[in-house]
Amino acid sequence: MPLVCVCSPKGGVGKTTLAANLAWSLARAGSKVLAIDFDVQNALRLHFGVPLNDGRGFVARSEEQADWSQSILTTGGNIFVLPYGEVSEPQRERFEENLAKDPHFLRRGLDTVLNYPGLVIVADFPPGPGPALKAMSALAEMHLVVMLADTASVSLLPQIENNRMIGQPLNHQLGHYFVLNQSDNRRNISRDVTAFMQQRLGDSLLGVVHRDESVAEANASQQSVYDFSPASAAAFDIELIAKRVANILNISVGNGEVQAPIRSGHY
């Protein structure tokens, strides 16, 4: 059960969009993929066509519902989604308190999907440090840290390199890797930061995603960039990153058939 965490030290970097399109790319290659949203903004579901007014999710009932897989939504194809859902402030606080205080809370909730044969999990987290990201560090095979091709991201790089984001290494298995998002060769700063990051990060930089309006347009239409504009630069970049992720995780691509029943809700 390969599990990839997508995170960032700051917001506004396109992290959720990248997580969604990474899930789409892995699914297109034949893997069965579950996208999990740990961000209270509850936006990941929108990338898979879940209606805006659908407030279902796993967080509100995470205490009483030991098996969070019961909140999974099917989207068609090889992708399932486990949305954060609509929550009250007390529900959010209790969820984060349970994550911080109970070291087994996350594993218990995800036990069914963690043991599901052939499933690839892509988990999206809110920007910056947080209890969910820290709790997941012991379970995930790898972390992808999304940065922008700007000076703010350069200034935050030491926070990741010196394990200050969650007070310990992000990942205890295959490590963490970087993705540089929205690189724009037409802008000097963006071009210079991209070159600096490539030199500084070396092999830990899995890829650079070029700025591409088709990504935002695909988001607006609740489609993957592959369906909206398969020949776009961003589609090519993300597919290359997905292949590198699959190689690191040693994912054996199957035929996409469901190997066992998975509890899911239809919308």
UniProtKB/TrEMBL annotation:
Any Pfam family hit: CBP_BcsQ
Signal peptide start-end: none
PANTHER family reported for this sequence: COBYRINIC ACID AC-DIAMIDE SYNTHASE, P-LOOP CONTAINING NUCLEOSIDE TRIPHOSPHATE HYDROLASE
Name under which the protein is recorded: Cellulose synthase operon protein YhjQ
